[in-house]
């Protein structure tokens, strides 16, 4: 997951998403992974999938509000 986050911060979104997908197979309920995956999906313009990951992250105990705010602003938080 950390390498996915690193790639995301470098702006290498496609590579970042690939690494998040791999990490998700190892830790499918990790709130931090789901949250950061959701942020990367949002930044890549995939708002619908970002919303799905956000729901899972918040259901798993994530409490950082930034992803939810971004999705609300984009009209995707339901």
Furnish the topology, listing elements before pairings.
Blueprint: H1 2-9, H2 13-26, H3 31-43, H4 47-59, H5 66-73
Helix pairs in contact: 1-2, 2-3, 3-4
Structure description:
The protein has 78 residues and is mainly alpha-helical. It has a single domain (2-73), classed as Tetratricopeptide repeat domain (Serine Threonine Protein Phosphatase 5, Tetratricopeptide repeat). It is 72% helix and 0% strand. It is built from 5 helices and no strands. It has helices spanning 2-9, 13-26, 31-43, 47-59, 66-73. Helix 1 (2-9) runs antiparallel to helix 2 and helix 3 (31-43) packs antiparallel against helix 4. The termini are far apart.
The second-level CATH architecture is Alpha Horseshoe
- What is the rounded distance between the termini? 27 Å
What are the low-pLDDT stretches, counting only 5+ consecutive residues below 50? none
Largest sheet: none
Overall shape: it is globular
Total domain modules: 1
Can you identify the CATH class?
Mainly Alpha
Helix content: over 70%
Give structural attributes.
Serine Threonine Protein Phosphatase 5, Tetratricopeptide repeat; 72% helix; mainly alpha; globular
Structure summarized in a few sentences:
This protein is mostly helical and 78 residues long.
